[in-house]
C-alpha cells in the first residue's frame, strides 16, 4: 500500500464509507468493510478515527460541506436574488446527478439515527442542514446586495424542506428537468422574502 498523509487517508475512508453505506446499508458499514473498500489495513481506521461514530459524523459533515460549496459556487450571478437562488439549487442538482451515493448514505444514516434515538441524532443531523442553508442564504444576499425580510432561520428551514423533497423525488424518478423546474419555482417563492439593501422596511415612512 502506498504511503499517504493522514488527511488523505481520512478522505479516502470517508469516501469508502459513503460507497459501502449507499450500496449495502449502514449495517454493512463495518470497520472491516470500510477499510477493505478503501484498500487499507484495519488498523488505519482506528488510527484516523478511533470510533465508527466519529467516522459517521465525518461523513455527514463532509457531504453537507460539499453540498454547500456546490450551491455557493453556482450562485455567482449577482444580478438578482432569484438568479442566485436558482443557480444555487441547480448546483445542488448537478451534485446529486453526479454522485447520488452521497445522498443515499445521508438518508440511510438519518433513518437509522431516528430508530436508535428518536429525540436526538436525526435532529442534530437536520440542524446541521439548517446551518448550512443559512450560510447559503446569507451568501446569496451578500452577492446580490439584498437583505432578507423574514428571519433567516425560518427561511433556511423552508430551503431544507425544498432540498429534501428535490432529493427524494429525484432519487425516485431521476427526472432532472422536473427537478430544475421545481428549483426555479422554489427560488421564485423564496425571493418574495427579500428586498434590496436600502429599501424601506415594512411600516417605515419616508419624508417627502
TrEMBL record:
Keywords: DNA-binding, Transcription, Transcription regulation. It comes from the Bacteria. Coiled coil: none annotated. It holds the Pfam family TetR_N. Residues 7-67 form the HTH tetR-type domain. The keyword Cell wall biogenesis/degradation does not apply. Residues 30-49 bind DNA. PANTHER family: HTH-TYPE TRANSCRIPTIONAL REGULATOR BETI, HTH-TYPE TRANSCRIPTIONAL REGULATOR RUTR. This is TetR family transcriptional regulator.
Amino acid at each position: 500500500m502506498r504511503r499517504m498523509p493522514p488527511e488523505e487517508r481520512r478522505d479516502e475512508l470517508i469516501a469508502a464509507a459513503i460507497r459501502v453505506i449507499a450500496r449495502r446499508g449502514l449495517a454493512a458499514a463495518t470497520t472491516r468493510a470500510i477499510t477493505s473498500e478503501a484498500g487499507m489495513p484495519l488498523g488505519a481506521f482506528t488510527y484516523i478515527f478511533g470510533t465508527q461514530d466519529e467516522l459517521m459524523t465525518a461523513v455527514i459533515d463532509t457531504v453537507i460541506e460539499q453540498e454547500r460549496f456546490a450551491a455557493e459556487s453556482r450562485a455567482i450571478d449577482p444580478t438578482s436574488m432569484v438568479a442566485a437562488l436558482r443557480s444555487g439549487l441547480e448546483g445542488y442538482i448537478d451534485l446529486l446527478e453526479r454522485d447520488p451515493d452521497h445522498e443515499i448514505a445521508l438518508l440511510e444514516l438519518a433513518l437509522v439515527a431516528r430508530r436508535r434515538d428518536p429525540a436526538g441524532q436525526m435532529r442534530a443531523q437536520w440542524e446541521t442542514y439548517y446551518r448550512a442553508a443559512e450560510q447559503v442564504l446569507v451568501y446569496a444576499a451578500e452577492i446580490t446586495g439584498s437583505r432578507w425580510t423574514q428571519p433567516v432561520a425560518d427561511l433556511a428551514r423552508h430551503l431544507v424542506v425544498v432540498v429534501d423533497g428535490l432529493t427524494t423525488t429525484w432519487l425516485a424518478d431521476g427526472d432532472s428537468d422536473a427537478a430544475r423546474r421545481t428549483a426555479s419555482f422554489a427560488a421564485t417563492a423564496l425571493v418574495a422574502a427579500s428586498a434590496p439593501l436600502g429599501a424601506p422596511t415594512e411600516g417605515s415612512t419616508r419624508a417627502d
